[in-house]
Design goal:
The chain is α+β, with helices and mostly antiparallel strands. The chain has a single domain, classed as Trna Endonuclease, Chain: A, domain 1, CATH 3.40.1350. Helices cover about 30% and strands about 35% of the residues. It is globular, with a radius of gyration of 14 Å. The N and C termini lie far apart (about 35 Å). The relative contact order is 0.19.
Length: about 120
């Protein structure tokens, strides 16, 4: 990812990389940037019969735990609310689902490094 791009552009590029990575690992993209009153879901993917709600996080530095650690409790709650709304609106509340995080950071030789954290958010 190039230095000097806007946060929006960097976020969009990270989401594209994450969608491609997950697709290459057997998931199928259903929707990008699903927005509702409760929040936003970066990627909605299908993994077999289940749905995967994916939060994509980019961090330039690993300070304070890096990209994965930035999905705090407040962000988790917003994701859960948005996913509940999605499931109701799309009439698929009976499908199994999980929440994954793709953490993107600068890697060696300027290529981005991706970390896929499955079941990153536990439902209470």
């Amino acid at each position: 990812m190039e230095i000097g791009r806007t946060r929006t552009e960097i976020g969009q590029q990270a989401e594209l990389l994450a969608a491609e990575y997950l697709s290459n690992n057997g998931l199928r993209l259903i929707e990008r940037n699903y927005r509702c009153h409760g929040g936003e879901i970066d990627l909605v993917m299908e993994d077999g019969m289940g749905l995967v709600f994916v939060e994509v996080r980019y961090r330039k530095h690993q300070a304070f735990g890096g990209a994965a650690a930035s999905v705090d409790r407040h962000k988790q709650q917003r994701l859960i609310r948005a996913a509940q709304y999605y499931l109701q609106r799309k009439h698929c509340a009976d499908r199994p689902c999980r929440f994954d995080v793709i953490a993107v950071s600068p890697g060696p030789q300027g290529k981005p490094a991706l970390q896929w954290i499955r079941n990153a958010i536990e439902l209470d």
